[in-house]
Amino acid sequence: MKDERKNQAERLVANLLSQEKFPVRPLPDDFEATLHRRLIEAAETAAHQPPSFVRWSALLRLTAAAFSFIMVFLVGFMVGSTVQKGKTDEQTSDACDLSNDSPTPTDHLVAAKTVVRRGEPVTIRLVYDSAQDIGKVRFMVVLDSGIRFRSNNPEIATRTELSWEGSLHAGRNEIPIVVTVDEAGERTIRAHAQFNGTFLEQKVILVAREDNHA
Amino acid sequence: MGEEQQHDERALIDAARRGDVGAFEALVRRHHHTLYRFALGIARGNEAAAADLLQEALVKAFLNIGRFEGRSSFSSWLWRIIRNEYTDEIRRSHGEPCSLEEVGEIADPAATPEEGSFAEERRQILWRMLTALPQIFADVVILIELMGLSYEEAAQYLGIPIGSVRSRLARARERLVAMAQKERELSKGFLRHTQ
Questions:
Q1: What residues in A contact B177, CB-CB < 8 Å?
Q2: Is A31 within 8 Å of B24 when comparing Cβ atoms?
Q3: Which end of chain B has fewer CB atoms surrounding its CB within 10 Å, N or C?
Q4: What was the pLDDT predicted at B107?
């Protein structure tokens, strides 16, 4: 009886699939010409005006489901991190382009890795290049054990994570965070930014060595 | 794809990133017929709507090509853009995932004179089943079963080995059958019409 029901279900699925095959038809004669015109229009629009959600929404008829993706694209995020060792201002890693092949907003992870001196202050600069102002961005920085925030405020200095709500303005945004690695070895700092259903993550790896090795 | 073709493709991608419309058109031209067939399926055979849908999706791909980093093939990146663009259209026109109610009654179009009505319901059911599947399974069903692509072509669009295409298709069929099997009474209805 069970096999019989399974056979029936298999036949049902096979019927549905065979009867719903997509039609094969030639492209309309004006397809390429119309596409060309629309591409030119889109290129000109993109080149001459900063993107705005409203205009793109009209152009692409995007629905709410696609909203978070569009935000990622329009925001044009380039997220990266630079690391300054002590007071030398030496940049040891370039900003990383966060754009992903996938159009779906997923957790992005950009890793920057650098060698630092154990016990010395290190400034991490989280860089966000935004095409427009964005409010209500939730930021969070999480430290591995062996790293601490450098702050005169003991309440902050003793914490292993910090979170706050802020905003990003159009253009380059830098968020400096000063930490110290107390233990030799590889330690990770994770920085999150979350807004409108989009979640971005950066990972900065600090390899702490004794003075004469860093 | 040969080395020379890959080089050409990379050059076209670079040009398209700089806003060269002609380069982008050259990149996507070989995919037009396959993607148009997909659009026709989504647009229920309406040629004008299918052309509009595909053009809109291609414009979106063009505007997003700066995000393509080459970690996947261009074909699979394009497929993801197009498929995502169509997803909302599918949901809008074919409804939410179903429980397969009445599926047995409409599985056999010959069982009733109102074939057109049944065909439409059949479409609804199939798409509800497909949207209930995980995307990785729905993709292989769409590409192979509905669009008639070969395993090799599907592998190219999905950016996975042919063996993975085969296994995903097998698992997708199993899931579809399981969905249908859940409705015992409906299966009886289906039997009434097919035996």
A1: 6, 9-10, 13
A2: no
A3: C
A4: 39
